[in-house]
Amino acid sequence: MSGDDAGQASPVPTAQTPALFTGPRWFIPSALLHELDPDAGRPGRRPRRTARDWVVDFACFFVAVLLGAVAIEALSRNPQVPDGLAVVDQVMGALACAAVWLRRRWPLGLAVALTPVSFVSDTAGGAGVIALFTLAVHRPFRYVAWVGGVNAALVPLFYWLRPDVDMPYLVSVVFAVLLTVAIVGWGMFVRAKRQLMLSLRDRARRAETEARLRAEQAQRLAREAIAREMHDVLAHRLTLLSVHAGALEFRPDAPPAETARAAGVIRESAHEALQDLREIIGVLRAGEPDDAGRPQPTLAALDTLVTESRAAGMKVLLQHHVTDPAAVPSSVGRTAYRIAQECLTNARKHAPGTEVTVSVTGAPGDGLTVCVRNPPPEGEVPPVPGSGQGLIGLMERATLAGGRLEHGPTPDGGFEVRAWLPWS
């Protein structure tokens, strides 16, 4: 009975729901509360018995009837019990056995009702044992202590009024008290085991939910990183397109060689931009970073970036003072490259025609410093929509790398971006 009964949740009335645990009500998780009380929040509805419930309930009813039959046989051998009283005893025992089917709906009420019935009827003793066990399984100890204590206290009086013909009085009392304690202990063990299993199940559900949330958060962070890469790469490529297209528009009388060179830069930049965009969209569709794409740029690619900017007509002065460029970590070098790339793009948009100075210094243990500075532009430069978003992305990128980034105007009216990245 313990193995079957332990796997069943106790459907109890809503009014008894706070008594599922001896601790405070707020400590019960909602999933665990639902497992212990399937009818919670559904007042007035009868619990639905499953096939297993019917088997367990029938087994309990059979045990109660079997114990009642044993008591009938004992009554027939007891000369102190008149025949009329024996008939009444059997009728009360039959009603008590029938009431066992109500043990799931009213475990406390059934146990309380069968306590006096079991006291006056021998054949109702089996039903009383089943009711006490059910109470220990489905209710906290404070209810079990009261009902079980009353049952144990009535044992000496019961055997004093109806002595057993086979055992001495003291042996009968001790045996009945020990049986009551064993039934209560068995029921409490089943209840504790059920609560443990439900708690472990609830923890497993929470762990699965947390793992799914962590995976979603990691995917979201990866997509944000891809978005930053898209901004950095495409902004640089499209700025080159804009500069050369503007040169062709305002200088239609340019020499054929210069026109061909500008058209080649436009074609190459457009091709690179489309390839970068295709790769990024492919990663977004796949939902995870693509390790099979082109290698990410590092600090060694800074010379190529400056060469491309100079080919676009910019005046760029590169000051490279790194003791051991090959020893720069790839993540730090990639961050430094993206900072320089975004700064050159901004200088091309906001300070066209000026000479931009890119300075990279650092050593292991001291960190890597990237400084991009440009003087004020000549004449008035029209405002560019969306200005400032790139600098916000650079600050986030530097912070994620464990460094810091500062930017602002210089005393002569120019602009400077200075970043420091850790290099251990």
UniProtKB/TrEMBL annotation:
Ranges where the Histidine kinase/HSP90-like ATPase domain occurs:
335-422
Reactions catalysed, semicolon-separated, are: ATP + protein L-histidine = ADP + protein N-phospho-L-histidine
Give a yes or no for keyword Protease in this entry: no
Taxonomic superkingdom: Bacteria
Query: Is Acetylation one of the keywords UniProt gives this record?
Result: no
- Kindly give the CDD domains that the UniProt entry links to this protein: HATPase_UhpB-NarQ-NarX-like
Question: One Pfam family this chain carries?
Answer: HATPase_c
Any idea what this protein is called? histidine kinase
Positions of the region Disordered?
A: 1-20
What sequence ranges are listed for the domain Signal transduction histidine kinase subgroup 3 dimerisation and phosphoacceptor?
Answer: 223-287
* Listed transmembrane segments: 54-72, 84-102, 108-136, 143-161, 167-189
Entry's PANTHER family? NITRATE/NITRITE SENSOR PROTEIN NARX-RELATED (PTHR24421), NITRATE_NITRITE SENSOR PROTEIN NARQ (PTHR24421:SF10)
What GO terms are given for molecular function? kinase activity
Native source organism of the sequence: Streptomyces venetus
Q: Which Gene3D superfamilies match?
A: 1.20.5.1930, Histidine kinase-like ATPase, C-terminal domain (3.30.565.10)
Q: Which UniProt keywords apply?
A: ATP-binding, Kinase, Membrane, Nucleotide-binding, Phosphoprotein, Transferase, Transmembrane, Transmembrane helix, Two-component regulatory system
Enzyme Commission number(s) of this protein:
2.7.13.3
Q: Which SUPFAM superfamilies match?
A: ATPase domain of HSP90 chaperone/DNA topoisomerase II/histidine kinase (SSF55874)
